Amino acid sequence: MGGQSKLSDKQWQKISDRLIDGESKRSLSREFGVSESLIRKRLGAQVEKIKTVVIQTLEAEKAFNSLPVGAQLSAQSTIIKLREIGENLISAAANGAITANRLSNRAMSLSSFIGDGLEACDDEQRQAMRDVMALGMGVNTHADLGLKLMTVSKSYPLTDIGKEESNKQVTHSRAREVLNNLNLLANDN
User: Fold this and answer.
1) What is the mean pLDDT of residues 142-168?
2) Is pLDDT at 160 greater than 50 in this prediction?
3) How far apart are the C-alpha atoms of 79 and 66, rounded to whole Å?
4) Which of 189, 157, 158, 181 is nearest to 91 (CA)?
5) What confidence tens digit (pLDDT) does each residue in 8-58 have?
6) DSSP state, 22?
7) Can you give the residue range of the structural domain that contains 62?
8) Which sign, positive or negative, has the C-alpha torsion 110, 116, 117, 123?
């Protein structure tokens, strides 16, 4: 039963689905003719992660449903705002990265007009240096949103919202804090 698997992707998906549903690796290894260790190696971490997400989703739904209707509406509104802000910031960051790349390429092409600094600069070289410096500042400006967004996502991971299930006020204030920081970031750019 050891060695390389001759199972198709569809068969592996069936095994994964059935593991998530609670079937044992042993029974699946017998049925599909592969070793338990191969199933564990190929699907173990993925299946555990899916199970964890399922449990977290159910817990979040339970916590949400335990809120008064007004608080549920407030939470839904906050979730919609966070998604919209996130989508808009991601789009703006992508556009900024594209613009930064274009400006950087233009600066590189202009840098060919600049000497190595050992000889005196003529007017064309001085202008090229000014242009390269201005383009460099533009590159930094346009790249800034993407860099800030990456920093915010590390400092305020949206996946952390809801982990403080024993204190709903903390959860709400954490969501509000993330929303405020994303709004500040959006207003900066």
Assistant:
1) 59
2) no
3) 17
4) 189
5) 999 999 999 999 888 999 999 999 999 999 999 999 888 889 888 889 999
6) T
7) 1-66
8) negative
Those residues with Cβ within 8 angstroms of residue 131's Cβ, 6 or more apart along the chain or in another chain:
107, 110
pLDDT above 70 covers a percentage of the chain that reads 74
CA distances to 46, 88, 119, 157 from 188, in Å: 39, 14, 42, 20
Please tell me what DSSP assigns to residue 149. H
Residue (of 142, 145, 138, 146) closest to 106 by Cα position: 138
Clarify whether residues 49 and 95 are in a common domain: no
Residue 58 has a pLDDT of 92
Residue 77 pLDDT > 50: yes
SS3 6: coil
Single-letter code of the amino acid located at 15: I
Tokens of 75: 């939470």
Assess whether 54 and 118 both reside in one domain: no
How many domains is the chain built from?
A: 2
* Same domain as 61, residue 74: no
Same domain, 91 and 181: yes
Residue 90 token pair: 């991601």
Does one domain contain both 80 and 56?
A: no
